C-alpha cells in the first residue's frame, strides 16, 4: 500500500509550515516589542499616563470621575474595569507602566487563544486554529496597541471570550448548564462594556443572536443583562455625584470625520483583505445556506464599531474587534474548505449559483490545499512590520530589501499616512528614556507645579497630575467644561512649566497658555517633539 | 364541516409557508429565514422613511441629508434588501 502523501498534500504541508513560520516570526516581533515597551518608563502612546492615574486612584479606593472645573482639573472618560484589574499592582509595585502593558499584552494572547479554540471547535484542524490565532496577533493594529497601558485590547479579550462561550450555548441540552453558560457569556459582555463603552456593539450582536435562536430566552436574558448593567451604572453615577455620566457618557459624544473613517476602512481592507474575503464568504454561506452564527453577527456589529473610528479620539484600534471576528470566520472557512464540509440545501439560490457548478466541488476542495495556506502567506506579506536595525531583524530586512519607513528604524506596511492610524509600533531607545528623564528633572527643579499633556513626567517627579487635556477637550467640545479656574491659574502663572506634545487642550486654555508662557526648549522623545514652555516676563496682550 | 376544513388548510398553508405552529415565546420557537427576512424588511423600510422624516420634522435644521444620515439610509436599504432575499428561504432555521 502506498502511504506516501501525494504531491498536492506535500505542497500543502510545506505551505502551511511556511505560513506558520511567518506567523511565529510576527509573534517574536510582537514579544520583542512588548518587552521593549515594558522597560520604557514614560508615556509611549499619549494617554497611557492618565490610565495609570486612574489605576492609582482606584488602588486608593477613589473614582477617577471628578469635577474637572476645579483643581486639579482631572477626570477620566473610561470605564473602570481595566484599571481595577491593574490596581493591585499599584499596592505592590507603586506607579509604573509595565504592569498595565503586561496586562494588555496578556489579554491579546488570551484573545488569540480563544480565536484558535473557536476555529478548532468548528473545524477540528489544529494547524488552521493555530494560524488563525497567530494571524490575529500579526495584524498591524493588534501589534501596535496590544502591549499598551490602555484598556482597548482588554475589552476585545472580554468580547471574544463572551462570543466564543455563547456560540454554542443554545444547543446545550441540559437547562441548568445552558443557563450558566449564557449567564457567563453575558457577564463577560458586561465586563467588556465596563472596560470600554464600544463593547455595546458586541452586546447588541449577542442579544440578536440569542433572539434569533430562541426569542423567549433572549428576552429573559436581555432583561437580566440590562438590569445588571444598569444597576452598576446607577451605583457609579450616585457614587460620583453624576460625574460618571458627565465624564464617561456626555463627554464621549463626538462628531465623526468621515474622511478618517473611510481611510481607516480602506487600510483595514488593504491589510486584512486576504482573510476578510473568506470571512465574508462564510457569512454569506451561513445567511443563505446554513444557520447564522454569533460570529457572523459579531462581525457585522464590529463593522459599525469600525465606522466610529472617525470620531475624535477614535482610530484604527476601533477595528480590533472586527479583526478578531475576521480571524474566527476566515479560520472556520479555511477548515471547512479543507474538510470539504459544505452543505447546500435546495433553495432558489443554490439552484442558481451552486448546483450548476457541483462538478467543481472536488477540484475546489483539492485546490483549497494550496489556496488556503497561500491566503495566510498573502496576509503575512501585507501586514509586514519589523524593526530594521535590531539584531537578527536587520538581516531579515536586508534579505527582503525592507527599509525603515517609521521612527527608530521600523518598517510598518500600514505606512502611517492614514489619519487616525496611531504612529506607534516602533521600539524605544535609550535616547528616548534619557530624554524623558530630562523632562522629569525640569519638573523637579521648578519652583512651581507643572502643567503637562502627559502624566508620566509628573508621576515620576512625585508631583500632582494636573488636568487630563484630552478629557478637557472632550468636555469642552460638548459644552460641559468651565475652564474659568484653570485659565485664572494660567493667567497667574501658577505653573512653573507647561509641557506640550500635541496641543490637546481646549482652544481657550491654549490661548491663555500662549499669552502667559513662551517656548524655551524642545525635547525629542519617542519621535515626538515635547515643547517646554516657561512663564513670560511680560505676558502677551489679548 | 367546511369551516373546519378551511381552517386546517389555513394552518397547513401557514406552516408550509415558513411559519412554525409554535408561538413566538414558547421554549421551542426559533426564527426562520422567512421571519428574519420579514423583520429585516420591515425594519429597513421603517428605518429608511424614519431617517427621511428627520428632515421633515426637524424644520430648523439646515443642510439636508448629512453624511451620517446617508450611511444610515444605505444600511436601512441594505437591511431591507437582505430581508427580501431571505423571505423565499421559507422555514429554514435562521
Structure, described:
The complex is a heterodimer of chains A (542) and B (94). Chain A has helices at residues 7-38, 48-59, 81-93, 98-123, 126-138, 140-145, 152-166, 175-193, 200-213, 215-239, 243-249, 258-289, 294-307, 320-339, 348-354, 361-382, 393-400, 430-445, 456-460, 469-477, 484-491, 507-516; strands at residues 385-387, 410-412, 450-452, 497-500, 517-525, 528-535. Chain A is mainly alpha-helical and 542 residues long. A four-stranded mixed β-sheet of chain A has the order 3-4-6-5. The radius of gyration of chain A is 25 Å and the shape is globular. The model of chain A has no long low-confidence stretch (mean pLDDT 95). The radius of gyration of chain B is 19 Å and the shape is elongated. In chain B, 64% of the residues lie in helices and 0% in strands. Chain B has 94 residues and is mainly alpha-helical. The mean pLDDT of chain B is 80. Chain B has helices at 2-16, 33-57, 67-86. The A-B interface holds A 211-217, 219, 256, 258, 287-288, 291-292, 307, 345, 347-349 and B 24-27, 29-31, 36, 67-68, 71, 82, 85-86, 88-90, 92-94.
Spatial separation of the terminal alpha carbons of chain B: 37 Å
The count of helical stretches of chain A stands at: 22
Proportion in helices of chain A: 55-70%
What characteristic shape of chain B results from the CA principal axes? elongated
Let me know the number of strands of chain A. Answer: 6
Q: Percent of residues of chain A in beta strands?
A: 5-15%
- Overall mean pLDDT of chain B: 80
Secondary-structure-derived class of chain B: mainly alpha
Strand content of chain B: under 5%
**Which geometry of chain A do the CA atoms define?**
globular
**SSE run of chain A:** HHHHHHHHHHHHHHHHEHEHEHHHEHEE
- Largest interface, with Cβ-Cβ < 8 Å? A-B, 19 and 20 residues
Biggest sheet features of chain B: none
**Number of helical regions of chain B:** 3
Tally of strands of chain B: 0
Alpha-carbon Rg of chain B, integer: 19 Å
Q: What is the average of the pLDDT values of chain A?
A: 95
Amino acid at each position: 500500500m502506498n502511504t506516501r502523501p501525494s504531491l498536492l498534500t506535500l505542497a500543502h504541508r510545506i505551505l502551511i509550515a511556511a505560513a506558520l513560520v511567518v506567523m511565529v516570526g510576527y509573534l517574536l516581533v510582537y514579544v520583542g516589542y512588548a518587552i521593549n515597551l515594558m522597560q520604557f518608563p514614560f508615556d509611549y502612546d499619549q494617554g497611557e499616563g492618565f490610565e495609570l492615574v486612574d489605576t492609582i486612584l482606584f488602588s486608593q479606593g477613589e473614582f477617577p470621575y471628578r469635577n474637572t472645573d476645579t483643581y486639579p482639573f482631572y477626570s477620566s472618560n473610561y470605564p473602570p474595569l481595566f484599571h481595577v484589574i491593574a490596581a493591585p499592582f499599584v499596592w505592590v509595585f507603586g506607579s509604573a507602566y509595565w504592569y498595565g502593558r503586561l496586562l494588555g499584552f496578556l489579554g491579546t494572547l488570551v484573545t488569540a487563544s480563544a480565536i484558535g479554540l473557536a476555529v478548532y471547535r468548528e473545524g477540528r484542524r489544529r494547524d488552521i486554529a493555530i494560524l488563525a490565532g497567530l494571524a490575529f496577533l500579526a495584524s498591524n493594529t493588534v501589534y501596535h496597541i496590544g502591549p499598551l497601558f490602555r484598556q482597548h485590547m482588554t475589552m476585545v479579550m472580554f468580547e471574544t471570550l463572551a462570543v466564543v462561550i455563547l456560540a454554542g450555548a443554545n444547543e446545550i441540552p441540559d437547562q441548568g448548564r445552558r443557563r450558566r453558560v449564557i449567564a457567563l457569556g453575558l457577564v463577560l459582555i458586561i465586563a467588556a462594556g465596563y472596560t470600554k463603552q464600544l463593547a455595546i456593539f458586541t452586546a447588541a450582536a449577542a442579544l440578536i443572536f440569542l433572539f434569533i435562536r430562541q426569542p423567549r430566552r433572549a428576552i429573559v436574558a436581555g432583561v437580566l443583562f440590562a438590569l445588571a448593567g444598569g444597576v452598576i451604572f446607577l451605583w457609579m453615577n450616585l457614587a460620583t455625584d453624576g460625574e460618571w455620566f458627565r465624564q464617561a457618557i456626555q463627554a464621549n459624544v463626538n462628531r465623526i470625520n468621515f474622511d478618517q473613517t473611510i481611510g481607516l476602512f480602506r487600510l483595514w481592507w488593504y491589510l486584512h483583505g486576504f482573510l476578510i474575503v473568506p470571512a465574508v464568504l462564510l457569512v454569506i454561506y451561513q445567511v443563505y445556506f446554513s444557520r447564522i452564527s454569533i460570529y457572523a453577527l459579531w462581525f457585522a456589529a464590529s463593522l459599525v464599531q469600525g465606522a466610529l473610528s472617525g470620531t475624535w479620539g477614535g482610530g484604527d484600534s476601533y477595528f480590533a474587534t472586527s479583526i478578531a471576528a475576521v480571524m474566527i470566520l476566515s479560520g472556520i472557512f479555511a477548515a471547512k474548505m479543507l474538510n470539504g464540509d459544505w452543505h447546500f440545501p435546495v433553495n432558489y439560490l443554490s439552484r442558481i449559483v451552486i448546483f450548476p457548478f457541483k462538478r467543481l466541488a472536488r477540484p475546489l476542495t483539492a485546490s483549497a490545499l494550496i489556496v488556503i495556506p497561500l491566503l495566510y502567506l498573502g496576509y503575512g506579506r501585507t501586514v509586514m512590520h519589523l524593526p530594521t536595525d535590531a539584531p537578527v531583524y536587520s538581516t531579515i530586512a536586508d534579505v527582503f530589501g525592507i527599509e525603515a519607513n517609521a521612527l527608530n528604524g521600523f518598517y510598518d506596511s500600514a505606512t502611517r499616512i492614514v489619519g487616525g492610524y496611531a504612529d506607534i509600533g516602533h521600539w524605544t531607545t535609550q535616547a528616548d528614556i534619557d530624554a524623558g528623564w530630562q523632562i522629569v528633572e525640569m519638573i523637579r527643579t521648578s519652583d512651581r507645579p507643572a502643567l503637562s499633556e502627559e502624566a508620566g513626567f509628573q508621576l515620576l517627579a512625585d508631583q500632582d497630575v494636573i488636568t487630563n487635556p484630552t478629557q478637557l477637550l472632550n468636555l469642552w467640545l460638548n459644552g460641559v467644561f468651565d475652564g474659568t479656574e484653570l485659565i485664572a491659574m494660567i493667567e497667574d502663572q501658577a505653573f512653573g512649566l507647561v509641557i506640550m506634545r500635541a496641543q490637546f487642550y481646549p482652544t481657550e486654555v491654549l490661548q491663555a497658555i500662549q499669552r502667559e508662557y513662551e517656548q524655551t526648549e524642545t525635547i525629542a522623545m519617542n519621535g515626538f517633539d515635547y515643547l517646554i514652555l516657561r512663564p513670560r516676563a511680560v505676558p502677551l496682550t489679548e | 364541516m367546511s369551516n373546519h376544513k378551511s381552517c386546517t388548510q389555513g394552518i397547513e398553508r401557514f406552516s408550509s409557508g415558513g411559519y412554525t405552529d409554535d408561538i413566538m415565546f414558547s421554549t421551542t420557537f426559533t426564527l426562520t429565514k422567512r421571519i428574519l427576512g420579514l423583520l429585516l424588511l420591515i425594519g429597513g423600510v421603517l428605518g429608511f422613511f424614519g431617517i427621511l422624516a428627520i428632515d421633515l420634522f426637524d424644520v430648523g435644521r439646515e443642510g439636508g441629508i448629512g453624511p451620517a444620515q446617508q450611511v444610515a439610509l444605505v444600511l436601512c436599504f441594505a437591511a431591507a434588501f437582505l430581508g427580501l432575499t431571505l423571505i423565499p428561504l421559507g422555514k429554514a432555521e435562521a
